[in-house]
């Protein structure tokens, strides 16, 4: 089974094994573990960073203190009316939906969120879900892979906890808070006012959420740990499982550990019997299993095994848990670098943040895979998760595709918070064979060169090893080499060698392992070959940024020439939002990537591909559209791993040059339109070529889907490249046309991008929701429900009293037969372009509702519950409109009870504008996601003056 199949198998495994009975399976056992996605059907709205009236009144209600359980109020309350909120699925990043603003934080991509935008910096999420009555007695928890940031979670109004970091995964036991056999409401408040990193970080529940159901006797979350020792033709696999008894009784059980290969064949099994756990205790159970002739996990063949851990009690399976793992060995050598399975591997790595064009930080899983494939195609074999633990699906993709990983902790420190974060990272991620190193920190300028740094690093390193001794510990250091952290760390991570003497350090610490955790930091715009400081565009020719950094070529040559350096990680693989060094506004994306924020290669990609892969590479730059520069010299470069490259202009040779290892070739060529051609020779034989041609103006849009068949699961995606071609079908490398998109069938566009660091075009077009509150109700007591004058649109209610002044007690009930409530509400000038809905709530036992004098609801009973009225535009007008509700009074059941005084709210939904994006130097990207049904997605792309293009995607 291929590794991709293994992934589907895992899903299937969980699907099958989460069924209460396994029909057709030999084993007549009840397996209770369920791992259910909680990604769909959330409601979302922006709250407010400090104004409770705009933050859904959370924390303002009677006894809504943290010291009163179940009193979560406002939007945290299960009773809160969220019908007006937007419907969304996870993962979701509200930052990417916001416009850009110079008042946003430059380092975060200048989105209109953060300190200057209190109205866009708090996001609320609510989800209602049913828990079957049969689940009573199970251990049920809700697990968040990551929420940016400072999340507060409530279940059914009960406060569960606060997680400050946007990069930690966390889980809450909700077993005792649930309504079994009924509705449950989870509410999450995230606040991005304060930032964690100096790069785009997204906002909201940007990773998956899960509902985990198990027996009270179960395997702990992240409770398995698999390591292996390979000797000759066998592997000794040590499988440890942490078993938890969350029950109120002592439980006796056995544990079976089984290793299964990618085809589902059992390779080894071991059973430990006679185990006992007292209530609220846990235990590690260790088994050593031998696998003969193991298939090893490697970069080229990332073969995954599976450990199946089964907990049995009196012949009944109480839990079964699958752990994907790989059998492989890793070793650093202070003189020779890094070895995987005993074979030397030079680390050819990239640093990456977690965002992508169009979708921000909320990446569908398939996009993780797309990004790792893109990096692999350049020859990249290692990925540093700078500067925080990633989403688990990124690591899954690295496991499946064969990409080594440095998993990085967010903040150095030895207070319990920091050490606990390190612990959580390691426990969560330790079974990924891709991970070869834990990084305890990055560029901690305040401590890296001093004794405090040395102490902290030594403690963190020892702590990390106490949890996992099978990985190497590194720290990325920018200065103070020879002092501080560099004196204690196992694998010294150099950030930028231009300012450091690695040879000297190696001489001084001959037993220390080392690599370049950051190198490069070159800045370039894809497809630009003349600096344009006004437009904030920088050439894509490789060059050093300033004296603190090397060019890419200088950097790689340094590492390639020194075997004691295990390799290097380029800063960065992908461009990312924020940190648009050396520019400020309106640049919003970094310039550091080898590929742009969409994944379109810059020329640097080909430099690395030449020296990082065995494939024959011949790549020419720049493009050959220099109309107006006829006769002027143009700098032409070739990136190639051939021995010699010959350059020809319009078939005339401009000479053959010999390539220096890890180098590149250059010519100055007098511009003449036509064809520029590079021919590569190895040992005198022509082995490859690249051709760039002068193009004409674009005449047609071209679409190319990275995958033509995707899963009809509502999650899978295809990444579509948009280009423009001329009448000779040549891609026009300078095209800047704005392309409009339309989509039909079971798919939707979830984001667009083009790699232009200065583009302020929207990434997403989402529906806009305006909620119009009905407040300041006035009231007048009347004799009956059926009144006419008081409900009229133009009735003068100036003399009426504020509603609900009088306590709604029995006395009031005896006195007052009916009440007319009136209020004005304001409709915006453009309301007719929106769909308007009134979500009513009962403020009477029986109530009739009038909008501008017209009855829309007649004698609605309290028992009928909340109602929903679509309001036709003809009923409304811009400016002040009137609502009148005639009701028989609602009365308090007892003195401390309250009655509903909220009549409901009016929701305006503005449909999203159609998707569009400009090409940037010939490219744009559209990400299309399945909406869940099988069929054919048809994406059309057009632009004024250009012939339309259509691409069809099947969803299966
Ligand atoms: C490093 C830092 C990275 C990034 C890079 C840009 O100092 O670790 O996160 O900011 O510089 O050159």
Summarize the structure.
It contains ten helices and 54 strands. It has about 950 residues and is mainly beta. The chain has six domains: about 100 residues, Sandwich (Immunoglobulin-like); about 180 residues, Galactose-binding domain-like (Jelly Rolls); about 280 residues, Glycosidases (TIM Barrel, Alpha-Beta Barrel); about 80 residues, Immunoglobulins (Immunoglobulin-like); about 100 residues, Immunoglobulins (Immunoglobulin-like); about 140 residues, Jelly Rolls.
What structural keywords apply?
956 residues, mainly beta, Immunoglobulin-like, Jelly Rolls, TIM Barrel, 6 domains, 6-stranded antiparallel sheet, binds beta-D-galactopyranose
Describe the structure.
By secondary structure, this protein is mainly beta. The chain folds into 6 domains: 5-23 and 227-235 and 254-325, Immunoglobulin-like (Sandwich); 35-214, Jelly Rolls, CATH 2.60.120.260; 331-612, TIM Barrel; 618-693, Immunoglobulin-like; 700-755 and 913-955, Sandwich (Immunoglobulin-like); 769-910, Jelly Rolls (Sandwich). The chain has 10 helices and 54 strands. An 8-stranded parallel barrel has the order 21-22-23-24-25-26-27-28, surrounded by 4 helices. Strands 3-2-4-9-6-7 form a 6-stranded antiparallel beta sheet, with no helix packed on it. A hairpin with a 3-residue loop joins strand 18 (330-333) and strand 19 (337-340). Helix 3 (365-377) crosses helix 4 and helix 5 (416-429) runs parallel beside helix 6. The longest helix has 17 residues, at 451-467. The radius of gyration is 31 Å and the shape is globular. The protein binds beta-D-galactopyranose. Residues 386, 442-443, 478, 495, 518, 521, 571, 579 line the site of beta-D-galactopyranose. Beta-D-galactopyranose is lined by residues 386, 442-443, 478, 495, 518, 521, 571, 579.
């Amino acid at each position: 089974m291929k590794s991709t199949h293994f992934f589907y198998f895992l899903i299937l495994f969980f699907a099958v094994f989460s069924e209460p009975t396994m029909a057709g399976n030999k084993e007549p056992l009840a397996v209770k573990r369920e791992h259910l996605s909680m990604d769909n059907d959330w409601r979302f709205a922006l709250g407010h960073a400090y104004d409770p009236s705009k933050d859904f009144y959370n924390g303002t209600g009677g006894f809504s203190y943290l010291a009163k359980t179940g009193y979560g109020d406002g939007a945290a309350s299960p009773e809160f009316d969220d019908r007006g909120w937007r419907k969304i699925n996870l993962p979701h990043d509200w930052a990417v939906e916001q416009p850009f603003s110079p008042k946003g934080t430059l380092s975060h991509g200048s989105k209109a969120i953060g300190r200057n935008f209190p109205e866009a910096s708090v996001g609320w999420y609510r989800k209602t879900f049913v828990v079957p009555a049969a689940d009573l007695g199970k251990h049920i928890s809700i697990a968040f892979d990551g929420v940016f940031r400072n999340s507060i979670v409530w279940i059914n109004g009960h406060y569960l906890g606060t997680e400050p970091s946007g990069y930690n995964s966390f889980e809450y036991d909700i077993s005792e808070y649930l309504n079994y056999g009924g509705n449950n409401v989870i509410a999450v408040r995230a606040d991005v006012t304060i930032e964690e990193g100096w790069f785009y970080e997204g906002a909201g529940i940007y990773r998956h959420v899960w509902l985990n159901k198990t027996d009270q006797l179960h395997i702990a979350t992240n409770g398995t740990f698999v390591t292996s020792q390979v000797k000759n033709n066998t592997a000794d696999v040590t499988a440890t499982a942490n078993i938890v008894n969350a029950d109120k009784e002592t439980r006796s059980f056995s544990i079976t550990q089984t290793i299964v290969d990618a085809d589902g064949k059992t390779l080894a099994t071991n059973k430990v019997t006679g185990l006992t756990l007292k209530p609220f205790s846990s235990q590690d159970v260790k088994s050593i299993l031998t696998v003969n002739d193991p298939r090893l996990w490697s970069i080229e063949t990332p073969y995954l095994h599976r450990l199946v851990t089964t907990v049995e009690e009196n012949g009944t399976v109480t839990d079964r848990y699958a752990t994907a793992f790989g059998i492989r060995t890793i070793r650093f050598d202070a003189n020779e670098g890094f070895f995987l399975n005993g074979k030397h591997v030079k680390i050819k790595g990239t640093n990456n943040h977690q965002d992508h064009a169009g979708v921000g930080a909320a990446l569908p899983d398939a996009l993780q895979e797309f990004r790792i494939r893109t990096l692999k195609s350049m020859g990249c074999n290692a990925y540093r998760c700078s500067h925080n633990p990633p989403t688990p699906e990124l690591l899954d993709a690295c496991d499946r595709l064969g990409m080594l990983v440095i998993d990085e902790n967010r903040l150095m420190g030895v207070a319990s918070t920091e050490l606990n974060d390190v612990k959580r990272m390691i426990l969560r991620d330790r079974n990924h064979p891709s991970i070869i190193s834990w990084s305890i920190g990055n560029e901690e300028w305040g401590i890296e060169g001093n004794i405090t740094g040395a102490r902290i690093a030594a403690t963190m390193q020892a702590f990390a090893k106490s949890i996992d001794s099978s990985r190497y510990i590194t720290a990325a250091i920018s200065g103070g080499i020879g002092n501080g952290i560099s004196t204690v760390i196992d694998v010294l991570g150099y950030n930028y060698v231009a300012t450091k003497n690695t040879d000297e350090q190696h001489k001084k610490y001959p037993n220390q392992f080392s690599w370049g955790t950051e190198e490069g930091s070159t800045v370039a715009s894809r497809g630009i070959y003349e600096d344009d400081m006004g437009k904030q565009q920088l050439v894509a020719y490789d060059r050093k940024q300033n004296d603190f950094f090397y060019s890419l070529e200088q950097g790689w040559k340094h590492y390639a020439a020194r075997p004691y350096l295990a390799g290097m990680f380029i800063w960065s693989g992908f461009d990312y939002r924020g940190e648009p060094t050396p520019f400020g506004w309106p640049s919003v994306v970094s310039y550091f990537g080898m590929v742009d924020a969409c994944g379109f290669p810059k020329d640097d990609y080909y430099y690395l591909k030449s020296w990082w892969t065995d494939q024959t590479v011949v790549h020419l730059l720049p493009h050959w559209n220099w109309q107006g520069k006829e006769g002027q010299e143009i700098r032409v470069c070739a990136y190639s791993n051939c021995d010699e490259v010959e350059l020809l202009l319009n078939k005339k040779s401009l000479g053959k040059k010999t390539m220096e290892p890890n180098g590149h070739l250059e010519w100055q060529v007098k511009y003449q339109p036509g064809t520029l051609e590079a021919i590569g020779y190895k040992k005198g034989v022509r082995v490859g070529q690249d051709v760039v041609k002068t193009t004409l103006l674009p005449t047609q849009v071209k679409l190319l889907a990275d995958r033509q068949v995707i899963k009809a699961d509502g999650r899978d995606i295809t990444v579509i490249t948009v280009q423009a071609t001329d009448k000779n079908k040549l891609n026009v490398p300078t095209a800047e046309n704005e392309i409009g998109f339309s989509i039909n069938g079971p798919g939707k566009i979830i984001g667009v991008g083009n790699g232009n660091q200065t583009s302020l075009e929207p990434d997403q077009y989402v529906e806009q929701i305006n909620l119009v509150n009905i407040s300041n109700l006035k009231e007048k007591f009347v004799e009956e429900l059926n009144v006419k004058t008081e409900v009229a649109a133009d009735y003068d209610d100036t003399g009426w009293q504020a509603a609900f002044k009088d306590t709604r007690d029995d006395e009031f009930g005896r006195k007052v037969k009916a009440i007319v409530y009136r209020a004005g509400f304001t409709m915006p000038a453009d309301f007719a372009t929106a769909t308007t809905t009134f979500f009513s709530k009962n403020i009477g036992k029986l109530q009739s509702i009038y909008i501008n004098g017209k009855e829309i609801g007649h004698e609605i009973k309290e028992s009928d519950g909340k109602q929903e009225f679509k309001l036709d535009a003809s009923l409304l007008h811009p400016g002040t409109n009137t609502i009148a509700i005639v009701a028989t009074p609602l009365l308090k059941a007892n003195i401390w009870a309250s009655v509903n005084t909220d009549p409901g709210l009016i929701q305006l939904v503005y449909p999203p504008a159609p998707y569009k994006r400009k090409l940037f130097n010939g490219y744009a990207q559209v990400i299309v996601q399945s909406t869940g049904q099988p069929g054919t997605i048809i994406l059309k792309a057009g632009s004024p003056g250009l012939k339309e293009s259509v691409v069809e995607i099947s969803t299966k």
